[in-house]
Amino acid sequence: MTDGRYRVGVVGAGMVGERLVEVLERRSFPMDELRIMATSARRQTMAGREREVVLTSEAAFEGLDIALFAGTEGETGASQLYGWKAAERGIFVVDNGSDYRMDPRVPLVVPEVNPEALRGHQGFIANPNCSTMQMVVALAPLHRAAGLKRVVVSTYQAVSGTGRAGVRALAGQRAGAADLGPYPAPIYNNCLPQVGSLKGKYAGYYSEEVKMIEETRKILGCPDLPVTATCVRVPVENCHSEAINAEFERPITPEEARRILSRSEGVTVVDAPEKSLYPLALDAAGQDAVFVGRIRKDPSRPNTLDLWCVSDNLLKGAALNAVQIAEKAIEMGLI
Known about the structure:
By secondary structure, the protein is of the alpha/beta class. The chain has helices at 15-26, 78-88, 130-146, 164-174, 207-220, 254-262, 281-284, 315-331, and strands spanning 6-11, 31-38, 42-46, 49-55, 66-69, 92-95, 124-126, 148-157, 227-233, 240-248, 267-269, 290-297, 304-311. It has a 7-stranded mixed sheet with strand order 3-4-2-1-5-6-7, sandwiched between helices. A 6-stranded mixed sheet has the order 9-8-10-13-12-11.
């Protein structure tokens, strides 16, 4: 660090890596240097201009203050090879991959929700799963007000969550191609109730659903909170949508929930169903906020609300949150 400015590395040059570069520059992050790493050295257009990309290696981290790992959901990420080694060299690491989220050494952080988890860090911070992220941003203010008792969520997840391969598969199938891409069945004109792979811990649950259960508990500091999820991939290019059923310890009306969420950091309420106004994936694309609407009382269960939640999975669900973690750590004097 020199004069309050940092040497920053972005590890990964895919969709999330590109968003990281965009967000760092858009938010005027205090950088002396931006170093982009990937599996091969090359020139690549990212965030509107051609940039130098260097081969990821231990030597490539030399001199960095902060390293943001773009991560690859469902695969062993670069952080397994380089993350802890970087942290041991004094580099502040934020990892968007899933490898260390539930590691007890590693804070799992959403700055609007649990910034205090950054204190006492060991140099390595995990970025939550994109679907978990937007849900906890919406639920945490209500949890603080009324105490969550149970959460049931169904997701409608965009193909960009599978990276460029998912976007290509949807576009190709729309044009008549037979290639399934990264999916077990056609995604065009279809919904796939499988995001990730089956996990033995919860019989019949895919890995994305397990992440939503376990990560929500860790972020909110509620290790025994009942959470269940059904995660579905849908033929939408970008932005995840969620139907959330949340039960609370005390009564909470839709009106109170709207008031709380309207003044909550990172949340935008769009809730005028009589005018057909509610959060839409098309409107959330490219936006930083988590959008919440369709806030209503569940008539089948006491102290329970239904909500509709939409967010850009590549921004708040990935790149933006990673940059916000670094910003918060600087603000707290932890870097």
